[in-house]
Amino acid sequence: MLLDIAQNLKDSADFLGNFELNNVSDLKEFANVLKAYESKGDQYVHTVITELNKAFITPIEREDILQLAMSLDDVLDGIDNFAAMLEIYSIAKFDEYVKEFVKNIQSCAAEILLTINLLSEKKLSQISAHAIKIKEYESQCDILYRRALKQLFSTCKDPIQVIQYKEIYEILEEVADYCQTVANNLETVIMKNA
């Protein structure tokens, strides 16, 4: 079940990075597809909770499974929120900072899927290296966030645009933080079960 959530997250991140936004009219489709991924993720999390309530014995502690599922869902929620804000603000073109954020988020999603695969195969000792990579991508997003804000405040004279882009950058940085939370939860699982 965690693999389903992680695969859905990777598919969502891939769509986020690969969809060609050409104009404002594309934003509705973009937001709707990402909302569908988010809704699918919610269904998976609901299934995890239902199954945890029925299971007598779980392969790892039930709290860890739930924490992992919820943190994966937070990443999906953040991506959905990003798409919704683009539509609300009618921003149909990614600037260089947004593109770089999205690349890092895609890389995090790929690493997350790898780690959940390793978890399902009980290869706990191999997870740590991938969790560290996720944290490195998140760290790159922290640096990127500061650079993006500095550039925004020093060059943009339109206060509305400043507000819009500041919020967009914050949402993307938050998505990266959620990815780091997934990595932290995976390290907790390793610590308890290795």
Automatic annotation (TrEMBL):
Coiled-coil ranges from the UniProt annotation: none
One Pfam family matching this protein: PhoU_div
Superkingdom classification of source: Bacteria
Protein name: DUF47 domain-containing protein
PANTHER family named in the record: UPF0111 PROTEIN YKAA
Family (UniProt): Belongs to the UPF0111 family.
